[in-house]
Design goal:
Strand order of the largest sheet of chain B: 10-11-12-17-18
Distance between the termini of chain A: 80 Å
Oligomer: heterodimer
Low-confidence stretches of chain B: 1-5
Structural class of chain A: alpha+beta
Strand content of chain B: 15-25%
Mean pLDDT of chain A: 94
Number of strands of chain A: 13
Number of helices of chain B: 14
Largest sheet of chain A: 5 strands, antiparallel
Helix content of chain A: 25-40%
Number of strands of chain B: 18
Strand content of chain A: 15-25%
Number of helices of chain A: 10
Largest interface: A-B, 116 and 127 residues
Order of helices and strands of chain A: HEEEEHEEHEHEEHHEEHEEHHH
Structural class of chain B: alpha+beta
Strand order of the largest sheet of chain A: 1-2-3-6-5
Chain lengths: ~350, ~400
């Protein structure tokens, strides 16, 4: 028999309705914006059919934000933006201003705390990323530290719109890709290289074997009896190091300092502008982790950005540029070695083979 | 490693230097108010020293009556860092378009300061507000305060994940339908599926107002809703001339980049063969004052995008080329119902809809959800002759 609830428990209400959070200028011009212009990097002006003007100031956040910083954002919004702000799909914070005169003092306050203004149009915007060592069990690297290290080197391209086109970076700390980095101009992907090490001593005590077997996407885990105890074995050639088994069974750790690191992928996009959306393709199969600054990864990314910026035509995204000049040229210009790992051997492999005699010399 | 009462983090302190805003600074800020974050820093410093993570996933944790919204997280070295022995994540469903008032932000901050680490993500990759790190005992009290303040949890596990939307008509002239309304409506309609995972795997819906797709719907959503228009691009000739007069090379920067070569610029007048336009947005992006999406607006519905797990990454592909804006929610509801029914019956454990379609074939999937094939669904018809003809399309064997 059900017990009598002592209080009314609220459930299934969904998020607060967005209409409660719209700046009066937004509410008034909702669906009736006419055009926008960029006043300077990170500062947009949207003009309504009514003639109203709404100013947006965009600043990078590190995605991990303390409540103290959120309160500071709220204070800034009250001071300069009539109490209204929003966040972008790339972890930027945006203040929505009715008064143009507030742009400069808001920028100044943001700068005082290291919150850079920019990320619009042909700037490098903020980096979509995952939790990494800060909070994930299957991460092959730290996402936040990589983002910080890479963006310290690229910060001037966030505050200036000096790329040929948009350049979107993403970091995912393993191939589960919570950050869905697979369609980014440059993606940094945490990469394990070894199957989980089975703790046969611990496994029978902490794991349900059927659940563990079912967790493997490729069916690589089989029941086995080890030293008379029920356990499992891993068909190692079927393992692609996703860590799903470790998710359900802590006796299957796959973190391995000597074999974990990152791979780098280039040339993807989600926008339909000009060419169709496309996946990022493998540029560098593996770079070992080298915290706290990952200098080899930073150098590789900076090099790719510099080569792209120098050679691409205006409005050409990374992938569009590479398709025009060809992948051999990309590897030549960046100095990245082409290896056996660059040739696909998963199920749609043939799709990336060169199936023509179109060869550049 | 204490110096003048202040804990030194040799490796992490490095990440407070440099121009980009620092997540280490954020964790330290939180640590001043909540010592739990000191243990987070300690464990993270150790991860940086050892080059490996120290988190475990764990048993099911959550709030009463929900099967998702909380991700269980435990330290694998709790004796060393007892304050993060439990460090669960709570996903909080964001308001559509990520618009907030300062008071809503303060409400969230206050709740999380009372019940958790004080660390957040604004936002997680799917779009939720992420509350990073609390103990099992704090889950119900956090949930109570959130719901009393008008917030609810987001999705996790094999459920309808928290839908997301771009800024849409709230702050963009290119929104071809009301992304915020559709996202919010879908979220409310499927609260049960969002909070109580009923599916073989996750199901994501993302609402992008135009083909620029600022929410990556085509890369990440099982059902991608991408705004588009059916009639002609709205063109303001005087504004085109103004761009040219200000030095924009319309031939080079606009016309030459048109993927279907449907534009012509004779030095004075821009003409567009609209029936050849694929609505890619490039010309509109470059000349937002002169060109705008047409007036007959709606969305293309696409199906099946996902990240690599399990069978490889997929982009969404066209399911319905155009749905008028005012019919969108109704069409989506009907479609979602039929897709879920088929997926429920035929989907394997951990098989996303896109993978199911790969396995059973798009044509069979279309039959099952009652959609007729149209040429907009493919870049080209099949190029192999392995056609499985259906019996009913062949004459019965001649009777004797």
């Amino acid at each position: 028999m059900a017990t009598t609830p002592t209080r009314k428990r609220i459930t299934d209400i969904g998020p607060p309705h967005y209409s409660k959070f719209l700046h009066p200028l937004v509410a008034k011009n909702y669906g009736k914006w006419k055009f926008h212009e960029t006043l300077e990097p990170g500062v947009l002006c949207h003009v309504g059919e009514s003639g109203d003007r709404l100013y947006t100031v965009r600043a990078a956040s590190p995605r991990i934000l303390a409540v103290q910083t959120l309160r500071w954002f709220a204070d800034l919004a009250d001071k300069y933006a009539d109490g209204y702000l929003r966040f972008t799909s790339r972890n930027n914070v945006e203040f929505l201003l009715a008064n143009k005169d507030n742009i400069a003092p808001l920028k100044k306050e943001l700068a005082s705390q290291n919150f850079l203004v920019g990320g619009t149009n042909n700037a490098i915007s903020n980096v979509v990323h995952t939790q990494g060592w800060v909070h994930c069990h299957s991460s092959a690297t730290d996402a936040s530290g990589l983002v910080k290290s890479v963006m310290d080197a690229l910060a001037s391209h966030f505050t200036q719109e000096d790329m040929p086109a948009k350049l979107r970076l993403a970091v995912a700390c393993c191939l589960n890709m919570c950050g869905a980095v697979h369609c980014s101009d440059i993606a940094i992907l945490g990469t394990h290289r070894k199957p989980p090490k089975i703790r046969h001593d611990l496994l029978p005590k902490v794991c349900e074997v059927p659940t563990l077997i079912a967790s493997c996407p490729t069916g690589a885990i089989r029941p086995a009896t080890v030293d008379g105890k029920q356990s499992v074995e891993v068909v190692e050639e079927q393992c692609m190091y996703c860590g799903n088994c470790y998710t359900v069974c802590p006796a299957m750790p796959l973190n391995d300092p000597d074999n974990d690191g990152v791979s780098i992928w280039v040339g993807g996009k989600v926008s339909n502008a000009r060419s169709a959306p496309k996946f990022s393709k493998l540029a560098i199969p593996f770079i070992p982790n080298n915290p706290p600054r990952w200098p080899e990864v930073v150098d590789a990314v900076v090099k790719i950005v510099e080569v792209y910026a120098k050679h691409a035509r205006k409005h050409e995204r990374m992938g569009e540029w590479i398709e025009r000049v060809g992948w051999p040229r990309f590897f030549e210009l960046t100095g990245i070695p082409f290896t056996r790992y660059h040739i696909d051997d998963f199920k749609h492999a043939g799709l990336t083979f060169a199936r023509s005699a179109h060869v550049r010399f | 490693m204490s110096e003048n009462g202040k804990v030194k983090r040799k490796l992490l302190d490095e990440l407070e230097k440099g121009p980009w805003p620092s997540f280490v600074t954020e964790i330290k800020k939180a640590a001043e108010a909540n010592p739990v974050c000191d243990d987070l820093l300690g464990q993270l410093e150790l991860s940086y020293e050892e080059k490996k993570g120290h988190w475990k996933h764990g048993g099911i944790v959550g709030v009463l009556g929900y099967g998702g919204g909380v991700i269980g997280r435990y330290s694998d070295i709790p004796e060393q860092f007892p304050n993060v022995a439990h460090f669960h994540t709570i996903r909080v469903n964001q308001p559509a378009g990520w618009f907030y008032t300062s008071s809503a932000i303060r409400t969230l901050a206050d709740i999380w300061e009372r019940h958790g680490s004080g660390l957040t993500n604004m936002h997680g990759s799917t779009g939720d507000i992420v509350f990073l790190g609390t103990k099992t005992d704090e889950l119900e009290p956090t949930f109570k305060e959130l719901t009393e303040a008008g917030f609810d949890l987001g999705g996790s596990g094999s459920c309808m994940r928290t839908p997301s939307a771009c800024a849409g008509p709230a702050r963009c002239e290119w929104a071809c339908y009301d992304t915020l309304k559709v996202c919010d409506d879908v979220t409310r309609t499927y609260q049960d599926e969002l909070h109580r995972p009923p599916f073989p795997y996750k199901f994501k819906v993302k609402c992008a107002g135009c083909p620029n797709d600022c929410v990556a719907a085509i890369a990440r959503a099982d059902l991608s809703v991408i705004g588009t228009w059916k009639d002609e691009i709205q063109q303001d000739d005087s504004a085109v001339a103004e761009y040219a007069a200000k030095g924009l090379d319309i031939q080079k920067e606009v016309v030459d980049h048109c993927p279907t070569k449907c534009m012509n610029w004779d030095g004075k007048k821009l003409t567009i063969e609209n029936h050849e336009c694929v609505r890619c947005m490039h010309c509109i992006n470059v000349m937002p004052k002169a060109l705008r999406p047409g007036k007959e607006r709606g969305a293309t519905l696409l199906i099946g995008a996902k990240a690599p797990i399990v069978q490889g990454a997929l982009l969404s592909s066209v399911l319905i080329p155009f749905v008028p804006a005012d019919e969108l929610k109704e069409t989506m509801d009907e479609l979602i119902g039929r897709i879920w029914e088929f997926w429920d019956e035929h989907g394997k454990n951990r098989e996303r809809v896109g993978e199911l379609i790969q396995r059973v074939g798009m044509a069979n999937f279309l039959d099952a959800i009652g959609l007729d094939p149209v040429p907009e669904m493919v870049t080209a018809p099949r190029d192999n002759p392995y056609i499985f003809f259906k019996d009913e399309e062949q004459p019965a064997e001649a009777e004797a």
